[in-house]
């Protein structure tokens, strides 16, 4: 395993959450229920927006896009993690399989973070200048912004995966994680890892720091605009919509920043694994719950769609 040309023989084993079978099974059932809940919740949001014509607006287009992204993003990690829990970590993942999982994790995770930034910009335009909003946020622009998030995420993931999996791997091959994350893989690499670490930092800045800065700036203007509104109902509706988005943003960016926006030398495997559970399992479940609970239009549309297609 010491030579990068022997990568066909390399396999990685995931570390157990606990050596106790009963604890592993409890974690397995918990993760399974969370994963199923996130699939059902995000699929429900997407199908409701698709089926209800009144929700065919830029805001709900981005929300539907986020729901689809969350389905694929969580499915990149959850199935393999569940198999690992069920088999007590006895089934390894191949070198190619690990690289593939890392690529899709970074790709979809980056696109997710960038899309949250775009959603903040959309809310900013809607609240700041509602009369010009429909002229500015045309469907063509919305599609271009969503595709831009995917393309940028794809490029960053491809470059990062190439940098990391061109390294040589030696020594033990047990990952202190439940999926092929960037920093745990780098800890197993031999030789100089400065270039991959620099690429991790660049990717983190592009997908976390820049979008979060834009979101923060947008919300400063959004709050200032909302406070100037004369209508109490209008202020309440605007705050409700934005607070939902802000809750998701703080959870997603906060957890990711704890892991990736710090020197790799200070990476703590146990903390990294615990925090990763939040943004790979919990956040995809909370997104549909937060948006459905705090968004009256979406709740009303869900009731209409349910009566129309289910309670026939």
UniProtKB/TrEMBL annotation:
Source taxon at top rank: Eukaryota
GO MF term list: G protein-coupled receptor activity; olfactory receptor activity
Pfam families: 7tm_4
Transmembrane segments: 25-47, 59-82, 102-121, 141-165, 201-227, 239-261, 273-291
Xref: CDD domains: 7tmA_OR10A-like
GO cellular component: plasma membrane
Domain G-protein coupled receptors family 1 profile per the UniProt entry, residue ranges: 41-291
Membrane topology according to the record: Multi-pass membrane protein
Alphabetized InterPro entries for the sequence: GPCR_Rhodpsn (IPR000276), GPCR_Rhodpsn_7TM (IPR017452), Olfact_rcpt (IPR000725)
Family: Belongs to the G-protein coupled receptor 1 family.
UniProt xrefs under PANTHER family: OLFACTORY RECEPTOR (PTHR26453)
Protein name: Olfactory receptor
Native organism: Orycteropus afer afer
